[in-house]
Amino acid sequence: MKSKRISIVIVPDIEKVKRLSIPKWLPKTILGFLACLILAISLLIINIHSSYKVLNAKYNEQKEEISLLEKENTNKDEEISNLKSSTETFREKTEEVEEKLEEIDKLQKQLEKMAGVKAPSRGRGIHERADLKDSKPESEMAGLNQVLNDKEKEVQDFIVDVEKKFDDLEKVPDLKPVNGRLTSRFGYRQNPFGQNMQFHQGLDIANTSGTIIEAAGKGEIVFSDHKSGYGKTIIIDHGNNYKTLYAHNSKLLVNVGDIVEKGQPISEMGSTGRSTGSHLHFEIHKNDNPIDPFNLLK
To answer: Tell me, which fold does domain 181-295 have in CATH?
Structure first.
């Protein structure tokens, strides 16, 4: 009968020989177990290595995300810092704008007194600005821009009104055309060339021949020539229902169609026409009717 055991003979240094018997299946079992153990360890190592790679990839990804978040956080900090700085600058600018608006209002008040022109909405912008102080900077900025735009339009309209008013004032013939001795007033007087009374339509101002005569107001020269009885004469149409006449001149300095400014030299005093001596005969007509010049002259 074939044996199912394996005999192992151990020969020691001593004389007695030992013999060890083991079952034939045991070495195979041990080898099989070792093979399975090695396979399991290999699979475990492979799994661990694969997991490590996955974890390492996730770690790198998380690290990159953290880096991006840190960078974004830094940018946010810078934005907040810039926003705080911008807000502070904006506050300073709004205060500066308020001061400028107040200065403009003061200037408007002065111009109103000088020209007699009223700005209908003066000061409204500052009150609107006060209502914006509790708003967000963006809303406040938009509101402030609107206030500034409204104020700019208001000031432009006001300047146009003031310029028109000043232009109208320049056209009023209220400037005394020449200095000298008043020899005859407006109204009835004794005729210097006879014994009867006659109506004198202006003022007579005497001075030396050649004395400069100035325009009493801004206007257009509508007559510059010799006129019967008046001698060398200038007539100015001021475009506001007023006309002025300057007579007995020795020399005329302007021509028909010229636009003259208030105070501009227009002639030289003389004694041309029906005159008793060197003087200016000055008339003011309103709606083509003579009026007393002293009603307008300053």
So the answer is: Glucose Permease (Domain IIA) (2.70.70)
